[in-house]
Amino acid sequence: MMSSExxxxxxxxxxxxxxxxxxxxxxxxxxxxxxAVAPAPMIPEVTVSVPASRELVDYEYFTGRIEPKEKIELxxxxxxxxxxxxxxxxxxxxxxxxxxxIDPQPFETDLARATxxxxxxxxxxxxxxxxxxxxxxxxxxxxxxxxxxxxAIGDTAEAAAAVDVAKAxxxxxEINLGYCQLKAPISGKxxxxxxxxxxxxxxxxxxxxxxxxxxxxxAVDPVTVLFDMDENTLVRLQQxxxxxxxxxxxxxxxxxxxxxxxxxxxxxxKGVVRFINNQVDSRTGTILIKADVPNPKPETGxxxxxxGMFTRIRIPIGKPRSAMLVPEAALGSDQGSxxxxxxxxxxxxxxxxxxxxxxxxxxxxxxxxxxxxxSESRPLQADEQIVVRxxxxxxxxxxxxxxxADQ
Length: 407
Fold this sequence. Notes:
Layout: H1 4-32, E1 45-49, E2 52-56, E3 59-68, E4 71-75, E5 80-85, E6 92-93, E7 98-102, H2 105-140, H3 146-178, E8 181-183, E9 188-190, E10 200-201, E11 213-218, E12 223-230, H4 231-242, E13 255-259, E14 269-276, E15 286-293, E16 310-316, E17 321-327, E18 332-334, E19 337-343, E20 349-360, E21 363-371, E22 385-389, E23 401-404
Parallel strand pairs: 1-23
Antiparallel strand pairs: 1-22, 2-17, 3-12, 3-16, 4-11, 5-7, 5-10, 6-9, 7-8, 9-11, 12-15, 13-14, 13-16, 14-15, 17-21, 18-19, 19-20, 19-22, 20-21
C-alpha cells in the first residue's frame, strides 16, 4: 500500500503532465493559425508652403569701418592760464560755440600798448606831413634848400612806415586776444578734456604740434565708411555700369547699403560712394573706397553710427530681377549639395537637388532644381508644395500628411 506522502507526490506529477500537455496543444494550435497582421506605419506630418516670388538684386559684400568725415584737434594758439571750460565732454557742439577761455589780461595789455603806439606813430606822421608842406612852400619861393626838402620827404615817408608797423602790431595784439577764446571750428561730438582749468597751456603758430592739445571734435553727420574692394569686383562693377545694368547718376556716386550686428541680415542704412582711389594697391590687389552715410540724430537716444565701428556693406551690381525663394530652414545639406522636398499630387515626398542663390533675410533664392532621374535642371514652380518644416522626418517616396504653414 502507498503512504499518504507517496500519494501526494503522484498527484503532483499528474498535474504537471496535464499542464504541459495543455501548453503543447495550445502551441500546436497557434502554429496552425494564420500569422498576425503587422500594424501600418505612421504617416509623418510636415508643414508645406508655396515658394515666395520676390524682386532680388545681386550684391557684392564687404566689411568696412566708420570714420568721421572731419576730425579737428583743438590746440592752444596762445600761451596762458586756462580759466574756463565751456563744454561737457562727450556731448555734441555746434560750430562757433565757445569751448575754452584763456586768461585775456596780458593780451588786453598788449593791445592797449599797441593802440597807443599806433596813435603816437600817426601823430608823428601828421606832424611831419605839416613840416613837409611848409618846406615845399618855402622851396617854391627859394626860401629853402633842396637838402631840407629831401630830408622832410624822407622823414615823412619813415613816419608813414612807422604807422603801418604800429597797425600790424595792433592787429597782432587783437588776434592774440581773440585766441584767448577758442570756439568750435565745426559741428560734431567733442571728446574728453586734455587739460583742467587753472593749468598753463602753451600756444603755437597756427596750432603747431608743440602747442597744448585741449580736446578733439569729430563730425557726426554725415560719416564716412572706408572699405577695400578687390580688383576683380571693381572690374565687374565698372562693366555693369558700362552695360547699363547699374544706374549711376554721376561719377563716384554708387549707392551702398550698410548693416550693423543689431540689424542681423538686414541693410537698412543707405549711403553713396564719394571717392574711389586712383590706383589699386599692388601688394593686396585692392582699392580704397569711401562712402558718405547720413547719420541723423533720432528724437531719443544717440546716433546710430559712431566713428570706429565695423559695419557690413553691400553694393548692387545689377538691376532687380524676379526670383523664387524658400525659407532657409527648408533646405537640407548632403556632402555640400543643397536639397529640398516637395509633395506631389499623390501626397508623396520628392527630393529635389537645388542650386541656391542669394540669401534675403531668412529666405534663400532657388535658382534651379533637379529630381533624381531627370536629365536637366528646371526652375522651381510657383505652385509646388515645399516642405518647410519636418524635413528630418521625410525621405523620398514616402507618403506624408501635410498642413499649411502660417503666412
